[in-house]
Design goal:
alpha+beta; Alpha-Beta Plaits; two-stranded antiparallel ribbon; 11 helices; 13 strands; 37% helix
């Protein structure tokens, strides 16, 4: 008789932790009663929905549009995209997009995803609607990344780097991190737009290549690489602000990256610098980049020679 059979307990099943009663295992595997589940909702438990969408003006449609209809369309365009109007999303920003991919872009965040889609539907139903061609959209949600260390994890990292808990420098770093972490996480979940004129958006994935599969690495290794990646980004503090939104299950890519900068060259510099980090150089792939300049709706219409 095998050792396993000799130690077997009737009515029990062997798990990694030891012998468990089969009845208890069935209870553990049984779904929670509906009464214990949260109410169905389209809103996030924490954080906001996010939508990036880009449009091109159709010159042929505009050429055939009567002058009064075009004027009414411009008025509606400015009203719909006014971030200060009653009923607007919590965050709404418009920009003039460089290149052939689009004429302008809209970024919006709100607890209600239908409110974000409602802005798009209003534009489509407006007098300018027939002349607005959507060229790209990206649906995502805000999140606090699993790679943002807790205070305890940050303390462990400092100790691995050689700092002693008795060291005043260690204690000062811990106190500073404890103070800034809540505000940093609020900004990730409920972001404010920075007062920078340049905006860049691009989607990205982590690679699943047999020789470079991010998802087969242990968490500790992934966290180590992301810490290096974050350190590279910190060097651009005050010049570039970044927001990463999650899109796994919401869009074709896994994350959306939005960058705002004080000057155009900082966009190139931060993207170039961070591509040398292992998390990016070995494990990341990127979609198209959309670069633009923050502009009010009236500026967009004048720039596109609609007004």
């Amino acid at each position: 008789m095998s050792a396993w059979a000799a130690n077997a307990k009737p009515g029990h099943r062997l798990r990694a932790e030891g012998w468990y009663p089969i009845g208890k295992l069935r209870q553990m595997q049984r779904p929670a009663p509906a009464s214990q589940l949260p109410e169905p909702t389209i809103r996030m438990t924490e954080g906001w929905h996010c939508l990036h969408i880009y449009f091109r003006f159709d010159a042929r449609e505009l050429a055939h549009m009567p002058a009064h209809e075009r004027r009414a369309g411009c008025d509606a365009f400015m009203k719909i995209l006014d971030p200060g109007r009653h009923g607007a999303p919590q965050r709404l920003q418009t920009s003039i997009t460089s290149g052939h991919r689009a004429d302008f872009g809209i970024m919006m965040l709100d607890p209600d995803p239908l409110l974000l889609d409602g802005v798009v539907q209003q534009l489509r139903r407006s007098p300018l609607g027939p002349a607005l061609e959507p060229t790209f959209s990206f649906v995502s949600i805000t999140e606090v990344s699993e790679y943002v260390p807790t205070v305890e994890q940050y303390a462990e990292r400092l100790q691995r780097e050689g700092l002693s808990p008795e060291d005043p420098a260690y204690q000062a770093k811990i106190r500073a991190y404890e103070q800034r972490l809540p505000a940093m996480n609020r900004q990730r979940l409920y972001p404010d737009f920075p007062p920078f004129p340049v905006v860049c958006f691009y989607p990205m994935n982590k690679i699943r290549h047999p020789q470079a599969n991010w998802y087969t690495l242990p968490f500790s290794r992934r966290a180590e690489m992301m810490a290096e990646h974050a350190t590279s980004g910190i060097r651009f503090a005050g010049r570039v602000t970044q927001l990463i939104t999650a899109s796994t299950g919401f869009d074709d890519w896994e994350w959306g990256v939005t960058l705002w900068s004080r000057a155009p060259e900082y966009i190139k510099e931060i993207v170039y610098t961070m591509r040398f980090d292992e998390a990016s150089a070995r494990y990341a792939e990127f979609g198209s980049f959309y670069v633009g300049y923050v502009a009010e709706p009236l500026q967009i219409l004048r720039h596109a020679r609609i007004l």
